[in-house]
């Protein structure tokens, strides 16, 4: 891989006047890989999806999960010990991701932190010369998503988005059917996220638990008092850290909607919803219906989040439906599709087959070829952006006009202000890459 000298100027420029930018990762170029070189991976965030990352990379030939990193030392020690026992070898343990980036022996990082850390962690990794596998959504807002795309390009990094359905053989085949006109002119995509989401109550503030670096956990977000309602999962339902279910599970489906329709960002967004079941402290809506209109292409995306008890749509709770003038296609989960053709809904081509998204990333890293990626950073940004646009329309309570080329709302200062956030030093997303 090409070694690119990098200064810390971009970090310093974005810091508030008089504020020292401390502890940023040293710029270390990744190894140049041969076909048989061992790839050393660090997994950052190991309490949830990170465990799947650990398992996924560990089963690949000549790949070593060398370092585990988590801001919660209790989680870190317990999970690392279990992993060592299973693998019959030691791993390095770090609580601060910046120390991982300073490690010359780490070639790639796999990021499974809460959403508000995804983009900055990935940008820092790119600047440190590491290739990146980053969980969905790749960004917490549009601004930092665009900066991640720029960082991957500038530092020539391989950046894979954790939407594993893109590596499914069946889903790839389904997309080709859409391109080939199997269901005719495809004019609408529907995404559904019907998940069992319970009452989380309101636990209020409490002392920070032993072993948790609360400042580092909050990272780019503004400082809050600790609450058990945030750690370790329910942060998804608070705007400072998560993006609701459309930005959680829903990124798989927003990504597939755009991929199947062959569209980018929309021109008009409408969202409605709210909290109808629980009197708990969630900030994000339990029910959300969003519509994304593409008038120039004559296409539309519908997206719906529902909790608790609900019907399925052609057997789908989490998935996608594509509508054409000759039939429709149902995609259930990450690896199954069926088609129904004509007015009589005659069964057409169908398949259930998965793939290995981690291996796809490793193959691209070894080949030093971004074109091999099934979930490249550009699609990561757009899939997340679609969810964020729907959330902004919901929070403002009105239909929004959007310019896909400028990536800004049209004549709406209030909406445009929500394309980014106020960052907290030293966890600053650089304005200039």
TrEMBL record:
Q: What is this protein called?
A: Gfo/Idh/MocA family oxidoreductase
Q: Which GO terms describe its molecular function?
A: nucleotide binding
- Name the InterPro entries on file: Gfo/Idh/MocA-like_OxRdtase_N (IPR000683), Gfo/Idh/MocA_oxidrdct_glycsds (IPR050463), Gfo/Idh/MocA_OxRdtase_bact_C (IPR043906), NAD(P)-bd_dom_sf (IPR036291), TAT_signal (IPR006311), TAT_signal_bac_arc (IPR019546)
Highest taxon, organism lineage: Bacteria
Gfo/Idh/MocA-like oxidoreductase N-terminal domain spans which residues?
39-162
Q: Where is the Gfo/Idh/MocA-like oxidoreductase bacterial type C-terminal domain?
A: 185-257, 357-427
Source organism lineage?
Answer: Bacteria, Pseudomonadati, Bacteroidota, Cytophagia, Cytophagales
Provide the species name. Answer: Fibrella rubiginis
């Amino acid at each position: 891989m090409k070694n690119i000298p990098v200064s810390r100027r971009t970090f310093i420029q974005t810091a508030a006047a008089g504020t020292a930018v401390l502890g940023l990762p040293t710029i270390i170029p990744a190894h140049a890989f041969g076909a048989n070189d061992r790839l050393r991976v660090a997994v950052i965030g190991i309490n949830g999806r990170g465990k799947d990352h650990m398992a996924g990379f560990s089963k690949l030939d000549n790949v070593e999960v060398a370092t585990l990193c988590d801001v919660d030392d209790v989680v870190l020690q317990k999970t690392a010990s279990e992993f060592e026992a299973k693998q019959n070898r030691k791993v390095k343990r770090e609580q601060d991701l910046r120390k991982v980036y300073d490690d010359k022996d780490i070639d790639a990082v796999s990021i499974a932190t809460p959403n508000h850390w995804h983009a900055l962690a990935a940008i820092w990794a790119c600047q440190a010369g590491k290739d990146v596998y980053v969980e969905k959504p790749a960004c917490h807002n549009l601004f930092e998503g665009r900066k991640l795309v720029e960082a991957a390009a500038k530092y020539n990094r391989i950046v894979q988005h954790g939407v594993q359905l893109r590596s499914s053989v069946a889903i790839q085949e389904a997309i080709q059917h859409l391109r080939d006109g199997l269901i005719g002119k495809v004019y609408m995509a529907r995404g559904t996220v019907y998940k069992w989401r319970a009452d989380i109550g309101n636990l209020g503030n409490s002392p920070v638990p032993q072993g948790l670096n609360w400042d580092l956990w909050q990272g780019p977000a503004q400082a809050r008092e600790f609450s058990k309602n945030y750690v370790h999962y329910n942060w998804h339902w608070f705007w400072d850290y998560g993006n609701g279910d459309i930005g959680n599970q829903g990124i798989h489906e927003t990504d597939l909607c755009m991929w199947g329709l062959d569209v980018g960002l929309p021109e008009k967004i409408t969202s409605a919803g709210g909290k109808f079941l629980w009197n708990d402290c969630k900030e994000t809506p339990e029910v959300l219906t969003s519509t994304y209109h593409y008038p120039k292409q004559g296409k539309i995306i519908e997206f719906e989040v529902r909790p608790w008890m609900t019907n399925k749509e052609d057997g789908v709770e989490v998935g996608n439906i594509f509508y054409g003038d000759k039939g429709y296609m149902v995609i259930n989960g990450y690896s199954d599709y069926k088609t129904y053709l004509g007015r009589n809904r005659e069964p057409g081509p169908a398949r259930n087959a998965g793939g290995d998204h981690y291996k796809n990333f490793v193959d691209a890293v070894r080949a030093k070829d971004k074109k091999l990626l099934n979930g490249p950073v550009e699609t990561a940004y757009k899939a997340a952006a679609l969810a964020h646009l729907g959330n902004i329309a919901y929070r403002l309570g009105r239909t929004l006009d959007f310019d896909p080329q400028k990536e800004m709302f049209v004549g709406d200062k209030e909406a445009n202000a929500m394309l980014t956030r106020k960052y907290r030093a030293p966890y600053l997303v650089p304005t200039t890459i």
